[in-house]
Specification:
Blueprint: H1 3-7, E1 10-13, E2 19-28, E3 34-41, E4 54-58, E5 62-65, E6 69-72
Length: about 80
């Protein structure tokens, strides 16, 4: 699967059913293995007190990569 295919999918948190955001990049380790997805947060998740507009979803937090969505379990 290509990054461009992942970027077209919606990332949904199974804990609360909310749309987390859009995939903008992959996180990789020194050996070149994918360790997670870098997601640009939706506006409602961005606090006014922080400038952090992206979050990393670790690979072990991904439950299912479907045709239209990526289901993850993230606790905030």
């Amino acid at each position: 699967m290509r990054l461009s295919e992942l970027q077209n999918k919606t990332v949904v948190n199974l804990n609360d059913g909310k749309n987390i955001g859009n995939i903008i990049d992959l996180s990789v380790d020194e050996e070149g293995k994918t360790t997670g997805l870098i997601v640009e947060k939706k506006r409602f998740l961005i606090s006014f007190f922080t400038s952090n507009k992206e979050t990393v979803i670790k690979w072990n937090q991904i439950e299912k990569i479907g045709e239209d969505v990526i289901l993850v379990r993230v606790v905030y």
